[in-house]
Design a protein that fits this description.
With 259 residues, the chain is an alpha/beta fold. Helix content is 27%, strand content 23%.
Length: 259
Amino acid sequence: MVKAAVLKAPGTNCDAETLHAFGLAGAQAQLVWVEEIERDPKRLDRFQILAIPGGFSYGDDLGAGRILANKLLHRFREGLTPFLKQQKLVIGICNGFQVLVKSGILPGGLAAARQTVTLTENDSGKFEDRWVWLKSDLSTCVWTQGIEEPVELPVAHGEGKFLPGDPAALEQLLGLGQIVFQYTDSEGRSAGYPWNPNGSVGDIAGICDPSGRIFGLMPHPERHLFSTQHPRWTRGGRPADGDGLKIFRNGVAWAKKHL
């Protein structure tokens, strides 16, 4: 049985939904508090997947995801470094994505001292809470294999603008197939606000590391597991499963096969 650890910190608020998503996908999911890993970093050895859910970890007091990112770098390193080197899976959703980029785990794949990309304040200057269209690029990401049609997922963030540190960082993401999701309009075309809800460079909504095992995205797949969660579900023509469930199923299937 694939085991997934859903990390819980003060301020996270999407952990229950993420636990449920992994359960539906066939994994044995467990809530793991930050303090548990601080006391015993090797606790991560028990799991094949680490999920960092959305919310406002530590109140985002020093910037979205910054405090939890520092904990990963300095308090979890003993357990996290071997976890990553063993080619296990990681997914960071919304605040979890912010944690991954600010710890340097994305886009490089290992906890790094130098951050090369960030997620910063939305161009609109306000919290954006809406459904968005996404297209999946030809990427190496194991979490999105087989997702060829555009998908709809909700976003809910105030600091979701993806910003590379320099043009070279963006070129590297493109060259290595690390751009996983991009915001589009309903026809799959690049468009401005509100289709791109935050002003992300290149309309980037999610990226992975070069191996495709570590995935971060701003939209919330755990909030679209069933068709009835979609605002237009009564209008017919939608499959029973929501667009987000495939992402979790892909991760669990890959872990079951390779780990």
